[in-house]
Records
---
Amino acid sequence: MRAVECAACGNQVLCEKFSVAHTSVQWTADAAVVCAEFRDRVGPGGTTARVRTCGTLRASIDRAVEDGSLTVSALEPGVPGSGTREAVDV
């Protein structure tokens, strides 16, 4: 997994790409505080559990793929942990 920083807020997530459509993202615990899109959509006392994505972060991940800092890696059959992460399309 590679760190990808959101161009808008600087929030960092860990990402892994297994195909063009399959992006695995691990969010930080403070995403609702750091990410303006999350913060604006959640509101006071809310939860980020129902917020599926941040459009600006998605664009940052796409740029990381385009510039080669995040590459599409192959799933390796029979390798423990390979392809077992939860996929989240951001």
---
Amino acid sequence: MNPSHTTSVSIITRPMMAVMCAQFFSAFGDNALLFATLALIKQQAYPTWSQPVLQMLFVGAYIMLAPFVGQFADSFAKGRVMMVANSLKLAGALIICFGFNPFLGYCLVGIGAAAYSPAKYGILGELTQGDQLIKANGLIEGSTIAAILLGSMAGGILADWHLGVALGMCALMFAVAVVANLFIPRLPAARHASSWHPARLVGSFVSACRALWQNGETRFSIIGTSLFWGAGVTLRFLLVLWVPAALGITDNATPTMLNAMVAVGIVFGAGAAAKLVRLERVQRCMPAGILMGLVVIGLSVQHHLLPAYLLLALIGALGGFFIVPLNALLQQRGKESVGAGNAIAVQNFGENLAMLLMLGFYSLVVKLGASAVTIGIGFGTLFSAAILLLWIVTRTKNIVVK
């Protein structure tokens, strides 16, 4: 299939629908499995500070594999790469289902996710082009967020009802994702690898990092998305701690429902970004990032459930408006320089390094006994300050066209 033909009229094509379906089931399984596994380690009486460690193992896989997964995605048909990655996720879910170490199983899911991400985002640049890439990102983010919404709810609610059923459902979702990947057309490889020697792959990855970091636009995108996802994963675990402390609710379902409200908001924010932000005016997304942190501060001092739902939906809307243009900018500039798969691998490295550092710091302050409210206020303040500083620097240096 000629990918340029698919972009001539509409991005709602059969290949894009196949990618969206595969992404939906894969992301559904990711999010349901997280909350089901959190319920499992809670049932097995692991300490509270070990909960972020589960996610740290997941993101650690992204960091360790970053030099390799970009070339893997660019050297083969990306739809088949996605299928292999989802098969690894399925294997990890089955390890947890059958009673083996949940940290080991979730780490394997992280390995699958690390291989999956460059292919998932990289294929968008092969199916679309120009400003349609922002719209394609909006669609894929909408599919992802719908999966986060439903997966988080299903994982938490089913875990309260029957933990075995919750874990089995997660494995089933990954199996469906594997099948959905078969319907993605086998597009030509973006660029064939000159070598698979580990040292050369690491060297190539370092070169890609250097090339993207030296470009002001891609550096801006990588820093912005890294801050966003580091903050997002920390907020997810903060809610698990904050709900019983601030609202007095101790079940597994309420934190997942609150996380789902963030997902609802992101759908609307991503849609707004697709309509209102163009690549040449990508800095329009920055005020949304600053406001996100301020709303987190307001959420932290809240003690009623309904306002918490509304504030989290607003956080999600601001987040969707913030992240979609930055993703599109990196995919477009990365495709023109180091290849889309390599660009996403570098982005994943930055994002997951930010997640690891933020989760590590979060685990430390929890272990030191800081309250959930104090952590939330500090977290929101630091995030807003970081985005404001990034915006000031980029405007001062005129890095991105305004």
---
Amino acid sequence: MPRLSRRGVLGSAVLLGGVSVAGWRVLRRRPQPLEVREALFEGVVYERENRRAPRPMVLHWLSVDLSAQGVRFLATPGNPEAAMPFVGKKTTAFLKEQGCQIAINGDFFMPWYSSTIWDYYPKPGDPVATQGAAASEGVIYNRNDGHLLKTTLWISQENKVQVSIEPPKSIWNAWGGHLLLLDGREENTELSPRVAVGLVGTKLLLLVIDGRQSGYSEGATAKELADLLVERGVSVAIQLDGGGSATMVAQGRGILNSPIDCRIPGRERHVANHLGIFAKKLT
């Protein structure tokens, strides 16, 4: 194979850099996607909704019928003996590894930073710990005895959902987060990608809002997130980790939303734990 001269190598690097910058600009200015509503699995319905006011937002709704045959949930398993019981893992990797049909990112976690595409933490396999309570199929990884995150989403083996500080008598799966106040008292005005889980009767409603992508989806405040859930009749809700962690994936479809990490649209972050959903194929 012929060798490139130093000038040729430099020219190639500049060309690749120009292509990368051009591609990044296209992603930043792309139009919103088509709206869609479809059943993905038995008891699981996905909806993509676009809004232009008060700013561009792309919403990803997932409705899960808790009574549908075959529906069950899984929190990421880890090492209960370790001080940091989880390892950095993409949501797509979790879905593939566990064989789930749907997955979203879970709890807020530490340590993490995201400076550049080369300088970030966690990388695959790096140890991390959730900031809230965490449990997977009865194994407890963090009881949240501290004061980082007090509210927890608890889902029992029988698909009973509870959002509370106090745990149920029997702990099965658990994810920590922030209680979303649905009465208009939310005060956080930061625009960010958001992730929330709420309860509507016998259905669990998952919402991921894309953000930090000018003209496409610029994110939401905590109050706007709560208001959107109220529109759908949610009675109680919890906010999970958002920002660059916000990711929703489906088996056979890949990433449904547009995550952003290191300011790069479509770049998926490695996170500590995830919320997985098993469901039967459509008949």
